[in-house]
TrEMBL record:
Residues 8-110 form the DUF8048 domain. InterPro entries: DUF8048 (IPR058361). It comes from Haloarcula saliterrae. This is DUF8048 domain-containing protein.
Amino acid sequence: MTDDTLLAPFDDDVFRQVAAANDIDFEALQNAVADHQRTMRENPGVEDLVYEWRKQYDDPVLVRTPDLFVVAVTPTVWEEYGEYLDFEPDRLAAVSAVHQEQTIRTDAVDVSAIPEGHTALVAGRH
């Protein structure tokens, strides 16, 4: 699985904007997002994760397409990924910001449907 495949759900403009706003290198941010996507796909798998999140959270799936899911999760999900991937807090914040910004730019998502205290997570399916 190539990084291009892992990064397919995200626009380069989103990476540029978030990298600049968070004072993080563009390629480092892309690598961190690719690591996160790879982790979701390999352990335990996107379909299994979404199934678990559907059991834990009230209607977390905001969008489902053949290529991706956009789900609303609590910050603890991001914290667990940050710990697992050994991301520094600023790197984790930037990775999460990429997901938020991509969600905002996705016409299929009504951002007002994200419950208070939750954040968006984009999970590529292929």
